[in-house]
Amino acid sequence: MAAQGARDPGTEKVRAITGLIAVVVGIAAVVGVAVVAVILLGDKNQEAVVAIATSALGIISASITAYLGIKATANTSKEATAAVSEKSGEAAVAQHETAVAEREVVVKKSKVDRLNKEIEAREKTGQIRPEVADELRHASVEAEEEAREVGPTGGGG
Q1: Which of 137, 139, 140, 152 lies closest to 107, judged by CA?
Q2: How far apart are CA 49 and CA 58, in angstroms?
Q3: 3 against 148, higher pLDDT
Q4: Is residue 63 within 8 Å of 23, Cβ to Cβ?
Q5: How do residues 50-105 score in pLDDT, each as one tens digit?
Q6: pTM higher than the cut 0.70
């Protein structure tokens, strides 16, 4: 069930918003601390004010970069997973269609073999004249070759 929640667009939207809120709150806290420190120091120690402002900007920059990097990685991972899932489905369908086509060829070959045995048996008993038997064998071979060229019937190819 947790895997389904991860794919839910509503859940993804909530995660994105809460992540952004966390980053904004963190930046606001750093700015607040920096402003209080600068006000308390005033004009007394300008070097300390510069150090505090520089540190605050570094923290803000690192926070934003980390948030955007994590967000980009998550989006890329989600897209890659979806693409792999789609390709796996396509591969499974292709494999199934190949197996069905192979089975159909085996069935057709079996039918042609049975037909040829029947023609031979009836020729030996005199039920079919030799010319007709040769013609039937020739037709069955042509049908088998045509079936191999055309491929499976019933939408399998």
Answers
A1: 152
A2: 14
A3: 148
A4: yes
A5: 888 888 888 888 888 888 888 888 878 878 887 788 888 888 888 888 888 778 77
A6: no
Q: How far apart are CA 69 and CA 22, in angstroms?
A: 15
> DSSP states of 97-108 as a string?
HHHHHHHHHHHH
Neighbours of 108 (CB within 10 A): 16
* Nearest alpha-carbon partner for 74 in 12, 1, 2: 12
- Sequence letter at residue 96: H
Quickly list DSSP for 28-96: HHHHHHHHHHHHHHTTS-HHHHHHHHHHHHHHHHHHHHHHHHHHHHHHHHHHHHHHHHHHHHHHHHHHH
Give me 8's structure tokens. Answer: 């839910």
Query: For the segment 15-56, what is each residue's pLDDT rounded down to a tens digit?
Result: 878 888 888 888 898 888 888 888 888 777 888 888 888 888
Sequence spans of domains, the chain: 2-150
* Tokens at 49, concatenated: 């004010």
